[in-house]
Specification:
Blueprint (H helix, E strand, L loop, with lengths): L5 E4 L6 H17 L8 E5 L5 E2 L5 E2 L3 E2 L8 E4 L10 H10 L5 E4 L3 H7 L7 E2 L6 H7 L4 E2 L5 E4 L2 E4 L4 H14 L1 H11 L14 H4 L6 H12 L7 H8 L3 H12 L3 H19 L4 H7 L5 H12 L3 H8 L6
Parallel strand pairs: 1-2, 1-6, 2-5, 6-7, 7-11, 8-9
Antiparallel strand pairs: 3-4, 10-11
């Protein structure tokens, strides 16, 4: 098989962005590494016939699955068609999935991998709304609802929709180095690693954006200064409100208390530093506003179930080549 060749599986009810997002990343990587032969890509449906996406778009595959060449990376997108899949598609995945060097699912494509037995005994993730379904249907799968993507050996599963772009960028970085992946990310105007890499929703996205400008400014300031004084009194002064009025207004407009919001931001910042830098735990704890490594350790164990050192071991980004 050609080096790092790609095969994207198509079916009726596929989510179009699950297909086009990763495809645009890998296609962009060809330009970034100045190699038009990088990531040779084919798409295939069961019979080779066009498929209709969940949004109504029609996609025309290159070949049928029966005629598809064996690929280095097999990409299985998600969509409504994963809920009651064609048994023939599941059987094809069961027979051919184990031979891929990398087996990748996007969003609810994990349901297809699960139905084919390809996630048995593995860790996996999927769209947050389908995590319970995946866990219930396949008890032997350890479903992790928080990560943007999970790698277990050569099987990689990603979270909802645009997380397929995150995963594809990570694979480009693994294959060709950080600069190539960063070039692609800049072209697509996306994060190379979105803030809070392992959370499907960053702290800023999981809370609502405040309506009033002073409160929005406070949200922005917290995100940019996690190591500063984030007490209610200090934040209220920045918004020119009394502490009591500020706390009430902030919660009403964002859905969380100022303290909880600040806690999420600090955790997110610490996670990003652990993932992307070689800074020691003590330095990270100071930069993220925890003050002491022990305070940060307690926050990590309470929220993520593992101490910072273990988190770094599991999720530290690979060095660019």
């Amino acid at each position: 098989m050609p080096e790092r060749s790609l095969l994207v599986v198509l079916f009726d009810g596929v989510q179009s962005l699950d297909v086009t997002g990763p495809v645009e990343v890998f296609t962009g990587a060809r330009r970034a590494v100045h190699d038009p032969a990088a990531y040779p890509l084919r798409t295939a449906s069961l019979t080779g016939a066009p498929v209709r996406t969940t949004s109504g778009l029609q996609l025309v595959p290159d070949v049928s699955l029966a005629d598809a060449p064996r690929a280095h990376t097999l990409v299985v997108p998600g969509g409504d068609g994963t809920r009651n899949p064609d048994p023939a598609l599941v059987e094809w995945l069961r027979a051919h999935g184990p031979y891929a060097e990398r087996l990748v699912s996007v969003c609810t494509g994990a349901l297809l991998l699960g139905a084919a037995g390809l996630l048995d005994g593995r860790r996996a993730t999927t769209h947050w709304a389908a995590c319970e379904l995946l866990a219930r249907a396949h008890p032997s799968v350890t479903v992790e609802p928080d990560p943007i993507f999970v790698r277990d050996g050569n099987v990689l599963t990603s979270a909802g929709v645009t997380a397929g772009i995150d995963l594809a960028l990570a694979l480009v970085e693994e294959d060709h180095g950080r600069e190539a992946a960063l070039t692609v990310a800049r072209h697509l105007v996306v994060f190379l690693r979105r803030p809070g890499n392992q959370a499907q929703f960053s702290a800023q996205l999981s809370a609502q954006t405040a309506h009033r400008a002073p409160l929005r400014e406070v949200q922005r300031w917290i995100a940019e200064h996690p190591g500063d004084d984030l007490s209610v009194a200090a934040l209220a002064a920045r918004a020119a409100l009394s502490p009591r009025h500020f706390a009430r207004a902030f919660r009403a407009e964002t859905g969380v208390t100022p303290g909880r919001y600040a806690e999420r931001i600090r955790l997110e910042h610490a996670r990003r530093l652990l993932e992307e830098t070689a800074d020691g735990v003590e330095a990270v704890s100071r930069a993220a506003g925890y003050g002491t490594p022990e305070a940060m350790r307690r926050a990590f164990v309470r929220t993520l179930g593992s101490p910072p050192t273990e988190y770094r071991r599991r999720f530290r980004a690979p060095a660019g080549r």
